[in-house]
Amino acid sequence: MFGQHSNQPRENHPRENHRRVNHLRANYRRENHRRVNHLRANYRRAATGLTVLGAVALLAACGSSGSGGNNGNSGGTPSGGVPTANLPVLKHIGKGEGQLNLIAWAGYLQPEWVKPFEQQTGCQVNAKYANTSDEMVALMANGGGGQYDMVSSSGDADLRIIYGGDARPVNINLIPSWKDFFPQFQSPPFNTVNGVHYGVSLQWGPNVLMYSKKAFKTAPPSWDVIYSKKYKGQITVPDNPIQIADAAVYLKTHDKSLGITDPYELTQPQFNAAVKLLADQKPLLKSYWALASQEISAFKNGDVILGAGWPYQVSALEGAKFPIGSTIPSEGATGWADTWMLASKAPHPNCAYMWMRYISTPKVQAQQAVSYGETPDNKLACAYMNKLQAGSCAQYHANAPATYLNSIALWKTPVATCDNGKPDCMPYSDWVTAWNTQIK
What we know:
Elements: E1 3-4, H1 25-45, H2 50-63, E2 99-104, H3 111-121, E3 124-129, H4 133-139, E4 150-154, H5 155-163, E5 192-193, E6 196-197, E7 199-206, E8 208-212, E9 235-238, H6 243-254, H7 268-281, E10 285-289, H8 292-300, E11 306-309, H9 311-319, E12 324-327, E13 333-342, H10 349-359, H11 362-372, E14 375-376, H12 382-388, H13 392-395, H14 402-406, E15 408-410, H15 428-439
Parallel strand pairs: 2-3, 2-4, 9-10, 9-11, 13-15
Antiparallel strand pairs: 1-3, 4-13, 5-6, 7-13, 7-14, 8-11, 8-12
Helix pairs in contact: 4-5, 6-7, 7-15, 8-9, 11-12
């Protein structure tokens, strides 16, 4: 059921081709990412699955009453609030229980940082690798079933886990490095509700505008290029309902009459406008991409000159000596962020807190950021990143000013109750339906 941290997931796992190549950092990262890009793509693609529809529909139904709408963190509070909000938190970290059972993305439990943790704490890490956010939500059901301690969930899953009563409040005072996080990740809306933390933020990444330098001498200043007939047949975007938020980010600037303030909290008219923009975009696309490797190939082969993607694809294309550029346009962008969440029935709470404390330190955050190709939440990680790989701090924006971070709208699950307390927002089940029936 569990695998030791040093083992890969079972042989028929879709990420089986990950290899640990330690003699050359760059090769190590490429091999790791070969596996991780499929994982991340599957995770994002999973939004179209029936599990999402069921889980989010339940969340949306709970949120339709509008109770607790003054909560600015949750993106709309379901009726009754968080079931575990009043559970007691650990006051101090005691002796480790000797085991720690983690649900994680492949690539998040590498020996280079897990083995030192085990040696320091005596907590043996047992990994359960998940392919999708839906799988993580399912594994965390019933508070992890008294089996799992933590999950490295992403922003589209966090609120489902929290409002499902499957995450336990965390005493953030027991995690000293938390104070060194960028402010945006100390109490973010995807893992903190009414000031209560249900985990500790980990890493993040933006969804960037990618462009071929063969076609563009300078970076396009606006997202309007991916909606322009001028580039018909030369554009690729993710196959993902959360792309509706990207359209909302664009419309927030270009149609102020809509009054969009949060791309994940859309009223019916706002939602309809975003859906129409994407439906109108469809004839302009060369393709939707489901795997990062598909977008990489599309650029390499000259099939596209513009795309919405992640820093990983940019890094991979740069490594292949392809003249790729990337930018956050003037309208801003969306982004993803991951959290180590504590299961409400975690069997090894002391080891879990030791892990949160350890994984939040700048050196360990740097190790994961460089290995995986993402951005650490700890602002002190930059120097360690550059020691591991020259220039990686700037490459992944780990030294970015607050204005850069503020331009990124990080994923959170859309629910029916808006932050103003009105049940006027479109739940994620409607996003999935619109993506599959009106846009694609």
